[in-house]
Amino acid sequence: xxxxxxxxxxxxxxxxxxxxxxxxxxxxxxxxGGPAYSILGMHATPEAVAALNKExxxxxxxxxxxxxxxxxxxxxxxxYSFTQHAPVASLMxxxxxxxxxxxxxxxxIAIFFSVLIGMFQGYWAERTPGVLIGAGQIIVYSIPTFFxxxxxxxxxxxxxxxxxxxxxxxxxxxxGALNIGSYFHHMVLPAITIALPLTAGLSxxxxxxxxxxxxLDYVRTARARGVPPLRIAVNHVxxxxxxxxxxxxxxxxxxxxxGGILTESVFNYPGLGWLLWRSALExxxxxxxxxxxxxxxxxxxxxxxxxxxxxxxxxxxxYE
Amino acid sequence: MTDKxxxxxxxxxxxxxxxxxxxxxxxxxRSYSSATTGLQVRNLSVTFGRGRKxxxxxxxxxxxxAAGETLGLxxxxxxxKSMTAAALMxxxxxxxxxxxxxxxxxxTEMTRLSNAALRTARxxxxxxxxxxPLSSLNPSLTIVQQIAExxxxxxxxxxxxxxxxxxxxxxxVGVPDAExxxxxxxxxxxxxxxxxxxxxxxxxxxxxxxxxxxxxxALDVINQAQILRLIQRIQKEQGMAVIFITHDLxxxxxxxxxxxxxxxGKTVEQGSAEEFFQAPRHPYSQALLNAIPRLISxxxxxxxxxxxxxxxxxxxxxxxxxERCPAMTPECLTVYPERTGxxxxxxxxxxxxxxxx
Lengths: 320, 357
Fold this sequence. Notes:
CATH superfamily of the largest domain in chain B: P-loop containing nucleotide triphosphate hydrolases
Keywords (chain B): ATP-binding, Nucleotide-binding
Number of helices of chain B: 12
Largest sheet of chain A: 2 strands, antiparallel
Shape of chain B: globular
CATH superfamily of the domain at 92-271 and 312-319 in chain A: MetI-like
Strand content of chain B: 15-25%
Helix content of chain B: 25-40%
Low-confidence stretches of chain B: 1-35
Low-confidence stretches of chain A: none
Protein name (chain A): ABC transporter permease
Oligomer: heterodimer
Radius of gyration of chain A: 24 Å
Distance between the termini of chain A: 6 Å
Largest interface: A-B, 22 and 33 residues
CATH topology of the domain at 92-271 and 312-319 in chain A: MetI-like fold
Protein name (chain B): ABC transporter ATP-binding protein
Mean pLDDT of chain A: 84
Number of helices of chain A: 14
CATH class of the largest domain in chain B: Alpha Beta
Strand order of the largest sheet of chain A: 1-2
Order of helices and strands of chain A: HHHHEEHHHHHHHHHH
CATH topology of the largest domain in chain B: Rossmann fold
Structural class of chain B: alpha/beta
CATH class of the domain at 92-271 and 312-319 in chain A: Mainly Alpha
Radius of gyration of chain B: 21 Å
Organism (chain B): Acidithiobacillus montserratensis
Largest sheet of chain B: 8 strands, mixed
Number of domains of chain B: 2
Structural class of chain A: mainly alpha
Number of strands of chain B: 12
CATH architecture of the largest domain in chain B: 3-Layer(aba) Sandwich
Number of strands of chain A: 2
């Protein structure tokens, strides 16, 4: 049962990946006037365009280009950025690392507080504290990310000066040594900015989950045999309520990236979102498509991981 | 309606049903000589809300159950049966409270206990079995984790001692292959086996009082008989007081020594099962008995009771059953009837079945 389920999930994920790569391939070809014009500018001579097309292999039939595209992907060749004059793959390296660390940190913060707030909300559902938490979630969820970022900078960076207003620690851009303390010190405000709306949404979801678990008969049975409230919360309710959360976190990955783009721009944080934003402004299509591809791949893998974790956690799937 | 007819009214129980359950077991004997070992409830009322919005869902219930005795608590859905159980356990839903009365279990006055003491009492002194054995077990904990929980919390047992105890209990309630099944999850058990697990859990600390809230409603007749026999056997061995909540009077006739019929949160009739079934006095009790299908009168139409019980916010001033009662007179609507009869059998009705006493 479990093996079959894993196989099915892998198959679906593989299909999604193939589809994603194909779509990104055609997106590049859909750039206005074709890639050559976007590199040489709108006023390039037809001869120059033809020469560049030949140099880049764009004169081959589409199916050949498609095959080469796959081949390059397997070699880890994501193209060449004409605006940055560097291969995209090597360009993305440090940006990717910065982003992943930031996003993971933000997600961990969000999960921790979501579970805490959600359990509380579930326990107090339909009574004053639960209603207040619900209102708070909607308010926080409605504040735009960039506004949260700017407000955090204003207060914590400028007014009380606890954290730097932006950039990254260790002065990586100047080739200086990485200073771990400073690196994470710079990460605090961006992480909170990403985590806040995430927590609002996730805790609301988890609160609902906890509330419906609290209504189930087994909670009454546990109370009836004298299990104290904290033990009921942790050992009984949380155990059952947390399972669907894994799937939701998997589905949230694209949202984290979107939040990341805005946050990294506000904090001038050299991550993937910041790179995406800059590439879009500079019309750097190879970098742009590589990032889109990467986000897509991470999303698919994240969902796969979530689903697999979920089926392993679910005792009913495991034993049948 | 005779006792005999009633006994014929459901599937006969065969001795062979329970033979596999006859396992010798050891436990410390308590002394049950004094009347204080059972449950004594006096004038229990439960109120929801405060001030003008307050309404009573249970009013003025009094009953005694001695150790080893079973009280059948009977009534329609919404009559307050489960609310009574919740009040005894100290597990009333949010907004509800015991507004008056006393609940004494042994020498302990339950209504005055702190939350922590009440939890200990629930763990040690009172066991409870519920209607739906699947949803009443936690789907992601193994059986042993759930049975051993109260034993570890309140009887101070180690993990391995609690495991041994859980195994002993599972054997006692007749789960086959108990050793292998300890680490199974609830979904791997059948309905009847789940209810046995529930019983094992309720018995973990040798409680004085067992509350069985429609324990067999979700089960087929064979399992129903086995489960009730099992409860009966353990009750005899351990001298527990049992409250058997049901809407099935034929089961009460079979298993209970005392009967209490509730309607809209109040007692309408109560007494020894023998006297009650011989001559039920309240028209509502009579109507309930008439609604039981009987083999002996096959071919006759079953009588039912028209209408629904009133909601707690709309309880009338007079007799609460008046609106649905065939014997209703204007008097019934204005004054609540006095208690009539003896401690052994009494009822609240102006026009009792069989004429006024």
